[in-house]
Specification:
Elements: H1 12-15, E1 22-24, E2 30-32, H2 69-72, E3 81-82, E4 88-89, E5 112-120, E6 124-131, E7 137-144, H3 157-167, E8 178-183, E9 187-193, H4 200-205, E10 209-210, H5 212-231, E11 234-235, E12 244-246, E13 256-258, E14 265-266, H6 285-288, H7 296-311, H8 321-330, H9 337-340, H10 345-354, H11 365-369, H12 372-375, H13 378-385, H14 388-391, E15 393-394, H15 396-407, H16 415-543, H17 548-568, H18 571-585
Antiparallel strand pairs: 1-2, 3-4, 5-6, 6-7, 7-9, 8-9, 10-15, 11-14, 12-13
Helix pairs in contact: 5-7, 7-10, 16-17, 17-18
Length: about 575
């Protein structure tokens, strides 16, 4: 189970004001949790970190009742690859994704007899199974695959492959193992080592008392498993009591198994890795503050686990998630005398050196393994056994809080109920996002409406002013139009009158033209007559000896011409001709 903020690029102090947190399924699928109960297990959608009621409950370690799938099964054993020819290939690089060949495309029911359900989560269900060929018992973890990138239901193939890739590199006595992997259309099925001893803290809560020697044996096993991971540059990032299981609790010193590698990452030199995930109660300050992460984050979680193991109380758990995160960033904890009255100084020193905000000053895994509290020899233990009554750690408080946390979860914790819960959570998340979007849209719409109203008022006033001007101009245009229409009619009438006048003038012109043509013919005849007359007088003119005859003759000619013109009734022509004749005569 992991916890995410809506925006990983903001500091956790800013995000403390947000009421919602996101948690992950076993393979890292984000899950929004309700505000009741305690943090769910890594494979189930548990509620959030609200503390139990009662005295001292504010600092109590919390956990739900139902067993998680990862709590009932192991993680994956490194699988060797059979090469053609019978050889075994080397393990994959931690950064390589497993190809389709690693996921057997056949029915798991053909190889294993599927038995009773052991546990369930939001997108996973765990069932007991038995291999048909050998009779060996395992745990089959069915992980729902996400069917599309847009879907929020199921675990993405990339996350499943990342987890499996890491698990294939791991082989250690304190880490559970993978036996086989199958895939069908809807699920990836991990066949895992069956871990039947339950959680470490449940086992310890059933004991009347716990000595520090016993506590160090369990812490040493945890450190051994983490040391193996850190030697491979793998950070678990989700170390918490729910992920610390016992292989078999019916032995004096049960064997511890670390489980759930859904958040595990390979830490690469020179590459900054940042994320906000994990269980709030156990995350390191660098996760809360969204700073580069490394192997040191696991050491902080070990410090919190040790604190809870020795006292039954959680060092940073507050009344709310926000208070819990604030306590972590401020490293706000103490060794309350009520809880640590019988705890040795070495144990407190071990915890103090793990719960250091500066990762450079925090104990490394090798330094933790070398701490005197872990390496305490038998002779020193003998001396402490003299004060056994004083050094026994009471587990009553741990048992009380364990019972409270178990009772905070509903008894019906089946896969179907969690599937329904997941749907409700998704619906609530979508509704919240819708409300947020709707509120932002409402504010934006209100601003737009105010702006539009202001523009409308301005335009309305402008249109009123312009309307008066337009109406006045329109009235003038109508008047001018009517005036032009009147002028057009008058002009049309004038054109018709001019046309009629032109027709009359054309008639008169034609008449005059014909009249002048007749005059021209008459004049031509008269001129011809005159020419004939002049020819008849040429002989007489030669016989004349003085000019009196010429003047008398010219006078007679003029009179004849005048008579001719008078007969044509053309006074203008007569006058012009008279002038020409006079000038000619002169």
């Amino acid at each position: 189970m992991s916890w995410r903020l809506p925006s990983p690029h903001t500091s956790m102090q800013t995000a403390l004001l947000r009421p919602r947190r996101l948690f992950r399924s076993p393979c890292g699928q984000p899950l929004t949790l309700s505000s009741r109960g305690c943090p769910g297990r890594s494979a189930e959608p548990g509620p959030s970190l609200n503390p139990p009621s009662g005295p001292g409950a504010g600092r109590a370690w919390r956990r739900p009742a139902a067993p998680s799938p990862s709590a009932l099964l192991g993680q994956v054993r490194p699988c060797a690859i059979q090469e053609p020819g019978g050889g075994v290939a080397s393990s994959l690089s931690i950064n390589e994704r497993p190809s389709m060949a690693f996921f057997k495309q056949q029915k798991v029911e053909d190889i294993y007899e599927i038995g009773e359900e052991l546990g369930s989560g939001q997108f996973a269900i765990v069932k007991k199974c038995q291999e048909k060929s050998t009779g060996m018992e395992y745990a089959a973890k069915f992980i729902k695959k996400r069917q599309s990138r847009a879907s929020r239901r199921g675990v993405s193939r990339e996350e499943i492959e990342r987890e499996v890739t890491i698990l294939q590199q791991i082989l250690h006595p304190n880490i559970v193992k993978l036996h086989d992997i199958y895939e069908n259309k809807t699920d990836v099925v991990l066949i895992l080592e069956l871990v039947s001893g339950g959680e470490l803290f449940d086992f310890l809560a059933q004991k009347e008392s716990l000595s520090e020697e016993e506590a160090t044996r369990f812490i040493k096993q945890i450190l051994d498993g983490v040391n193996y991971l850190h030697s491979k540059k793998i950070a678990h990032f989700d170390l918490k009591p729910e992920n610390i299981m016992l292989l078999d609790k019916n032995i004096p010193i049960p064997h511890i198994k670390l489980i759930d590698f859904g958040l595990a990452h390979k830490i690469e030199d020179g590459v900054d890795f940042k994320n906000i995930f994990g269980t709030p109660e156990f995350v390191a300050p660098e996760i809360v503050n969204y700073e580069p992460l490394g192997l040191a984050a696991d050491m902080w979680s070990i410090g919190v686990i040790t604190y809870i193991l020795l006292s039954g109380a959680s060092p940073f758990l507050g009344e709310t998630k926000q208070e819990t995160l604030a306590n972590i960033t401020a490293v706000n904890y103490d060794f309350d005398e009520e809880f640590f009255s019988n705890t040795s100084d070495l144990a407190k020193d071990f915890i103090q050196k793990l719960l250091v905000k500066d990762t450079r000053k925090r104990l490394t895994i090798q330094e933790a393994l070398s701490h005197p509290w872990i390496t305490l020899k038998d002779e020193a233990k003998v001396q402490e056994n003299k004060k056994v009554e004083n050094t026994q750690l009471k587990t009553k408080r741990l048992r009380e809080y364990t019972i409270k946390c178990h009772s905070s979860m509903p008894p019906n914790n089946t896969y179907i109920n969690f599937e329904r819960f997941a749907h409700v959570v998704e619906d609530i998340s979508r509704v919240e996002q819708g409300f947020s979007t709707l509120a932002a849209s409402h504010n934006s719409l209100q601003e737009d409406m105010d702006a539009l109203l202001s523009i409308y008022n301005e335009k309305e006033a402008w249109y009123k002013e312009e309307g008066e001007s337009v109406r006045h101009k329109l009235s003038q245009l109508k008047y001018e139009y009517r005036k032009m229409e009147s002028l057009k009619r008058h002009l049309h009438n004038d054109i018709e009158a001019v046309g009629a006048s032109l027709a009359g003038v054309c008639g008169k012109y034609t008449e005059l033209q014909s009249h002048y043509e007749s005059l021209r013919r008459e004049l031509s005849e008269e001129l011809k007559w005159i020419q004939d007359l002049m020819s008849s007088f040429q002989l007489g003119n030669e016989a004349c000896v003085n000019g009196n005859f010429d003047s008398v003759f010219s006078k007679d000619i003029n009179e004849s011409v005048m008579e001719l013109l008078n007969r044509s009734c053309c006074e203008e022509f007569l006058e012009g001709l008279n002038l020409d004749v006079t000038e000619s005569h002169q």
